[in-house]
């Protein structure tokens, strides 16, 4: 079997894993939206951490990876954990008001933000063409944020839309911090301490307004932990075996999941400006990924003619 065949097989496995991961996270977000009708956003962030922590502890035990989780750069882990709390709370606030598809459309700005942050934080060079694409992506966000006609007096944006954008910004910063951590720390340590900080920190912040859990919501809490854990495993497999440039565009299948779940559960579909904004943002993201692949291949060819 040639190297190209092996690469193609790895990409197929990774693309399948990415689609599964996105589906799991979409189901998790559906649970967040259902719970947001009865509990404060910070409490839901705490429940996300608490429900996922036992599964992560079991996973590390099965892998016998406890020896890798202690020697870490604590300031980076604490920062990622705090960003994770803010991201979960803001995203839950957003999906409380917005359909999933609209929330995903706005959240798709995160890859563009990561590209922007890679310059000052990671010292990476971003070509001029990428900055034009990032600007076009932000235009897509403005289009997607356009309110319904009955909301025009409330201003150009809604609180839910701003909350999702805030969540995307937290995710982007956390992703860049994670790339710094991954240079020295194990994957198990990054997943574990992120979840511990979210569980403990969000619980402490949410405690003054904690709402007693209803017995009927325990199945949702179980689903919250399982879908989030499975999504994390799948996305790890996705980027371990395949090329990032081949796998990353399939993150945008979240929009299809969002549309389907919105229609199935809440009988709603995206409006025209959401579709247009999504097309611009997704197109910008895919262009960045594909262009980065070409640049990487060109460098490799120059170094090894």
Describe this structure in words.
The protein starts with a helix and ends with a helix. The longest helix has 33 residues. The chain is mostly helical. It is 75% helix and 0% strand. α1 packs parallel to α11 and α5 packs across α7. The protein is built from 12 helices and no strands.
Keywords:
305 residues; single chain; disordered C terminus; 75% helix; mainly alpha; 12 helices
Distance between the termini: 23 Å
Strand % is under 5%
Question: What spatial form do the alpha-carbon principal axes imply?
Answer: globular
Q: Please tally the β strands and state the result.
A: 0
Rounded mean pLDDT score: 83
Coarse structural class: mainly alpha
Low-confidence stretches: 149-156, 298-304
Major beta-sheet overview: none
Helix content: over 70%
SS element count, helices: 12
**What string gives the helices and strands in order?**
HHHHHHHHHHHH
Radius of gyration, in angstroms, nearest whole number:
20 Å
Protein topology:
Layout: H1 3-35, H2 41-63, H3 74-97, H4 100-107, H5 110-117, H6 128-144, H7 159-181, H8 187-206, H9 218-241, H10 244-247, H11 254-266, H12 272-303
What is the gist of this entry?
This protein has 305 residues and is mostly helical.
């Amino acid at each position: 079997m040639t190297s190209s065949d092996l690469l193609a097989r790895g990409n197929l496995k990774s693309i399948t894993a990415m689609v599964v991961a996105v589906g799991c996270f979409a189901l998790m977000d559906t649970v967040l939206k259902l719970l947001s009708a009865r509990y404060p956003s910070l409490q839901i962030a705490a429940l996300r951490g608490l429900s996922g922590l036992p599964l992560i502890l079991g996973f590390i035990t099965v892998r016998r990876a406890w020896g890798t989780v202690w020697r870490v750069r604590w300031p980076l882990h604490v920062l990622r954990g705090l960003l994770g709390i803010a991201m979960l709370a803001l995203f839950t606030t957003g999906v409380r008001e917005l359909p999933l598809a609209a929330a995903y459309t706005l959240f798709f700005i995160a890859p563009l933000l990561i590209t922007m942050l890679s310059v000052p934080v990671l010292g990476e060079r971003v070509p001029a063409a990428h900055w034009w694409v990032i600007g076009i992506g932000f235009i897509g966000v403005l289009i997607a944020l356009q309110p319904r006609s009955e909301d025009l007096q409330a201003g150009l944006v809604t609180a839910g839309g701003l909350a999702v954008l805030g969540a995307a910004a937290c995710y982007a910063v956390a992703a860049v911090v994670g790339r710094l951590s991954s240079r020295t720390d194990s994957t198990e340590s990054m997943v574990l301490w992120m979840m511990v900080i979210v569980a403990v920190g969000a619980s402490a912040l949410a405690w003054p307004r904690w709402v007693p859990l209803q017995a009927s919501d325990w199945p949702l809490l179980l689903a919250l932990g399982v879908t989030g854990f499975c999504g994390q495993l799948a996305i790890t497999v996705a980027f371990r075996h395949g090329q990032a440039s081949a796998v990353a565009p399939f993150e945008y299948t979240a929009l299809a999941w969002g549309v389907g779940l919105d229609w199935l559960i809440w009988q709603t579909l995206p409006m025209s400006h959401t579709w247009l904004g999504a097309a611009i943002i997704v197109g910008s993201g895919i262009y960045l990924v594909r262009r980065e692949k070409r640049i990487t291949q060109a460098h490799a060819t120059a170094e090894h003619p």
